[in-house]
Design brief:
By secondary structure, the protein is of the alpha+beta class. It is 41% helix and 12% strand. Strand 2 and strand 3 form a beta hairpin.
């Protein structure tokens, strides 16, 4: 007689548990023997205590600790070189046990995560067809290992939930119109009529066709403010500015435009930088999203004169260069239709009727002759797109019940529907990614795959084509998926991938975290910062679009420059504010992201550079070999550094300390390679110091050459380099590691979870297939999307 099936299952479970316990006991003995001396006690080395390893691997923290142990032992990092090596058979047994046990534990790589702030804003934009600034409502998200979409760091609080309620009201207010079509501005404003240029003894000269501006002094409010224009409503506005360079010896003249209410400095934001040729009136056209009561300012750049200089000579007699602004055309808010598409997408052709209020006699609302059926139709359609999957009855019925209650309580049709729409927007089904549990192999269903793909490349929800393919269960097919990756990358919404990924991978979001010392670096300004950021984004997009080799991120023979950035880099022959692809001249030390001004700026503190900061950045962001955190009882530059005069001497003494030496041998070389670049990314042979007597250099700066820069060093494997160019070439000898790092970064960004040592075989497979496609960046993205790591939870 066969035993009952439940007894067989119980026997299997007990046997498996016993085997796991026996295996753990054996491997604990191994760890105590080879690691216990350093990693137990009151002050375990590296802050890692063997006692912190929990008995099981069921929870995420336990798996992370055990996998870290596996990685350290498997790579040979531990035990240290000066300690006896354990037998290879024991190492293999331990790592195999950890890998197998971890693989059988948990619910997949990615825990349930919510939309981050950027994803939320983009999603409501595409869901409702509105662009609403929510920065004041939704706090910035915490970054984990460089990315703010990491599932484990996206916490939810009561404060955040209240913010979501307010955000839902704001986006619905923008999407649903309750008034008649707003009037539009469509007018030409002549600069001669602006009060901001009518100053006694001013820096402006009135000409027949416009006003010449010879000097700008923002702190004294000497700039052209368009007081005669104001935006009556929130929306997009189109501007055309007619201007030209005046008395500029044939050279173009630059200017930038800002927008705001100008009641407070913080309300003024940069729109963009432009340039116009000399003596030839030129129209500059652009569109901008404005809030109510916004105005614009036109501010000339790089004019040599100060207002007192011009006023002393007299604007009518001044013969230096200036900017002539003739007129500004303003049109907006721009509307393709009325009611707007956002309103029609929700209510279709349902009629609007006047329902005057005491404070708004023109108030209108949508009405329905069949309120409940119409409300259900609207909410089912909306929820399908908002939840990014088919709507289950258990999803929609509580929302419909709430709408029914409101209608029975006397709410108007539109008011009741808004309650339902708001409930959808604050539902966990909208705010969180609900990916299929890996109980059946872990493969995402096609709707979850559609979301993972669209949030990877668009930072937003899937569009109708992705929904259709998911509904037909075709999206997971390799060729279909490849076609969709190409389609998404060619869409304008893919700009979000460039902006969000580079902003986090390369730390560009921190560009304003420090401000360079204005006395040491007076040449740094918003114009230069803007060009730096554009260079990096345009370069990234070029490598992606052209499927250029991944090594381009380390070394390339081109970059993107305008006149301002080219001058900063010492590259001749580039004129005007327009960014364009430029082949780097022979002997240039630029090329690749490490030597871009934006990266060099965010890896400095504003006053000085640090090889430790930059070296750590290179190890983590470019090589994927982040250094260990310093011991808690060791300060940044300790111990004794008295008498040291350069950063090299300081770090040389730091290396003499046993607890610091190992990491600094890895960190310092890439940091020293970048010491030839100053705080704002300029090339230098000497450190910059202030003059003692107020003397100025050839560019009018109160600085003098300090100690010479020495960028030479030696890598941990003994290879030496003399400068950044030789260092780049050494990095290029290990193309697979560059690919491995970028693959891991892209997977972390795409899935919301860092790869673990368990994923290494699949990552190696991605690298191999990418290598077969000449290591192209676009090819790497295709291979990632096709991989099981991307397509499973």
């Amino acid at each position: 007689m066969k035993p009952p099936i439940h007894l067989i299952c119980l026997a299997i479970i007990v046997a498996s548990s016993l085997r796991a316990d026996e295996g753990q006991a054996v491997h604990r003995k191994f760890l105590n023997e080879h690691c216990g001396k350093c990693h137990t006690g009151e002050k375990p080395k590296g802050g890692f205590d063997l006692e912190s390893l929990s008995p099981g691997l069921a929870d995420a923290d336990s798996r992370r600790h055990w996998l870290s142990v596996m990685e350290q032992i498997e790579t040979g990092e531990m035990p240290p070189e000066n300690k006896p090596r354990p037998p290879a058979t024991q190492v293999e047994a331990l790592t195999a046990w950890i890998r197998q046990t971890a693989a059988q534990s948990g619910d997949g790589r990615v825990v349930m995560r919510r939309l981050n702030r950027a994803e939320y804003a983009n999603t409501v934009r595409d869901l409702l067809g509105v662009e609403v600034d929510l920065a004041d409502l939704l706090p910035p998200d915490t970054s984990t290992n460089g990315f703010d979409n990491n599932a484990e760091s996206l916490h939810t609080s009561s404060y955040l939930l209240r913010s979501y309620l307010e955000a839902a009201d704001r986006v619905l207010d923008e999407a649903i119109v309750n008034e008649s079509k707003p009037w539009q501005v469509k007018k030409r404003f002549h600069i001669k009529d602006e009060s901001s240029v009518k100053r006694p003894g001013s820096v402006y000269r009135f000409l027949e066709d416009g006003v010449a501006i010879f000097a700008v002094w923002e702190s004294a409010n000497i700039r052209v403010t368009m007081w005669n224009f104001r935006s009556p409503f929130r929306g997009k506005y189109r501007f055309r500015i007619s201007a030209y360079g005046f008395q500029s010896q044939g050279k173009p003249v630059k200017f930038h435009v800002t927008a705001g209410t100008f009641k407070e400095v913080t309300e003024e934001r940069l729109l963009d930088y432009y340039s116009v040729p000399a003596d030839k009136p030129t129209e500059i056209e652009f569109t901008a999203q404005l809030e109510p009561e916004n105005r614009i300012r036109i501010i000339a750049d790089d004019l040599p004169a100060t207002p007192p200089m011009v006023e002393k000579i007299g604007a009518d007699k001044y013969d230096g260069p200036g900017l002539v602004v003739q007129w500004v055309d303003a049109e907006g808010p721009l509307m393709d239709s009325w009611p707007p598409a956002s309103h029609v997408a929700l209510f279709g052709d349902l009629e609007q009727k006047k329902m005057p209020k005491d404070d708004d006699p023109d108030w209108r609302e949508v009405v329905s002759e069949n309120p409940l059926p119409d409300a259900e139709r609207i909410l089912r359609q909306f929820a399908r797109r908002a939840f990014r999957r088919p709507v289950m009855e258990e999803d929609i019925q509580p929302i419909l019940a709430r709408v029914r209650q409101r209608l029975e309580a006397g709410y108007t049709f539109e008011q009741a529907v808004r309650v339902g729409l708001k409930a959808v927007l604050v539902s966990p089904q909208f705010l969180f990614f609900h990916e299929k549990s890996p109980k059946e192999g872990g493969k995402l269903d096609d709707f979850a795959l559609a979301s993972r793909l669209s949030y990877f490349l668009w930072s937003s929800m899937p569009d109708e084509e992705l929904f259709r393919l998911a509904d037909d269960q075709k999206l997971h097919q390799p060729e279909v998926l490849r076609q969709q990756v190409e389609r998404l990358l060619k869409d304008p919404k893919a700009a979000a991938f460039t902006r969000e990924f580079t902003g986090q991978w390369l730390s560009l979001r921190a560009i304003d975290a420090t401000m360079p010392d204005r006395t040491l670096y007076p040449e740094y300004d918003d114009s230069l910062k803007s060009a730096m950021l554009k260079e990096t984004n345009l370069f990234f997009n070029e490598v992606l679009t052209q499927d250029l080799p991944l090594t381009s991120f380390v070394a390339s023979d081109f970059t993107f420059l305008n006149e301002r950035l080219a001058k900063h880099y010492g590259i001749p022959g580039v004129e005007g504010m327009e960014m364009r692809r430029v082949t780097l001249p022979a002997g240039s030390h630029r090329g690749g992201v490490m030597t871009m001004g934006s990266v060099l700026k965010v890896t400095a503190n504003g006053t000085t550079t640090s090889p430790v900061l930059r070296g750590s950045w290179v190890l983590e962001r470019i090589l994927g070999t982040p250094p260990a955190k310093p011991p808690v009882d060791v300060e940044a530059i300790e111990p004794d550094i008295r008498g040291a005069t350069t950063i090299r001497e300081q770090l040389a003494k730091h290396r003499d300390v046993e607890t610091c030496a190992g990491c600094h041998k890895k960190i310092d070389p890439p940091g020293f390679a970048l010491e030839s670049f100053d705080v704002i990314g300029g090339w230098r042979e000497h450190y910059r110091s202030l003059t003692n007597n107020g003397e100025r250099d050839s560019q009018g700066r109160r600085v003098r050459p300090g100690p010479p820069v020495d960028p030479a060093d030696v890598l941990t494997d003994g290879r030496r380099f003399q400068n950044i160019d030789e260092f780049k070439q050494l990095l290029l000898t290990d193309k697979d590691q560059l690919a491995r790092n970028l693959a891991e970064k892209l997977l972390a960004y795409a899935t919301g979870a860092e790869p673990t040592p368990l994923d290494r075989p699949q990552i190696e497979s991605i690298i191999q297939r990418t290598r077969e496609n000449k290591n192209g960046f676009r090819s790497l993205i295709h291979e990632i999307v096709q991989s099981p790591l991307f397509q499973t939870k």
